[in-house]
Amino acid sequence: DIQMTQSPPSLSASVGDSVTITCQASQDISNYLNWYQQKPGKAPKLLIYRASNLETGVPSRFSGSGSGTDFTFTINSLQPEDIATYYCQQYDNLAMCSFGQGTKLEIK
Amino acid sequence: QAQLVQSGGGEVQPGRSLRLSCAASGYSFTNHGMHWVRQAPGKGLEWVAVIWSHETDKYYADSVKGRFTISRDSSRNTVYLQMNSLRVEDTALYYCAKDIRSGSMDVWGQGTTVTVSS
Predict the structure, then answer these.
(1) Helix or strand or coil: residue B92?
(2) B34, B72 Cβ separation under 8 angstroms
(3) Among chain B residues, CA nearest to A91
């Protein structure tokens, strides 16, 4: 099974800052990597699919990059409503999925 | 718009069974795979299972393989998760989710709680 290592586990930043979260796969997953946002008490929301594609309706301050085993998720110009936990998720060639451990983002 | 409404869940003793349901509406149910994802209290997301358009094409996380069965009924636009031999560690909020493209999940149910306790 493919393991996803996400870091950091938590992050504190100020409004207007740029923040970056990384995700590393235990083996090559090409670009089958998605990013989700989960706010407390809510279901996850898809933000980025196939590593770098912005889901419809998601603000352009969110972006993703990477391929193979190393991936990056960035929020530019952090907004108060971005307080959430963010997860990476991979899909492998055996049609299995797994999530990273999550990154809890707080506003300073 | 696409919507998933979940039912089932509750509190059961270890070793017992439970079935979760997820009714889909607002899109072509037969054209999309469906996932189950769970979240233990205070923990992260854990992928549980997926069933693709071909109802025989299904995959499971190792933690539930042999105990859980995912199925779908296209006449009812509903996906199910039959959970047998439940363990305390299966306690979680369970979500169903629609697959939009190769493992990305764009529509989620509201979640349903499963508590396994003696």
Answers:
(1) strand
(2) yes
(3) B103
Residue A20's nearest CA partner among A66, A74, A71 is A74
Separation between Cα atoms, residue B39 and residue A5, nearest integer Å:
18
Contacts of A47 in chain B (CB under 8 A): none
pLDDT mean over A26-49: 96
What distance separates the 2 farthest-apart alpha carbons in chain B? 41
Structure-block tokens of residue B82: 């039959």
Cβ–Cβ contact A52 with B under 8 A: no
Token pair of A99, please?
A: 């999530």
Residue A54 to residue A14: CA distance in whole angstroms: 23
Name the residue among A36, A43, A46 with its Cβ closest to that of B109.
A43
Whole-angstrom CA distances from A13 to A7, A10, A63, A72, A75 are 15, 10, 17, 17, 11
The half-sphere exposure of B94 on its side-chain side, counting CA atoms within 13 A, is 29
B69's tokens: 């069965």
- Measured CA distances, B15 to A61, B7, B85, B89, B94 (Å): 47, 21, 4, 12, 18
Residues of chain B in contact with residue A36, where contact means CB-CB under 8 angstroms, are: 45, 105
- d(CA B86, CA B88) in angstroms, rounded, equals 7
Q: What are the mean pLDDT values of chain B's consecutive 10-residue runs (118 residues total)?
A: 96 98 96 96 97 88 97 96 98 97 94 97
Check A95 against B100: CB less than 8 A apart.
no
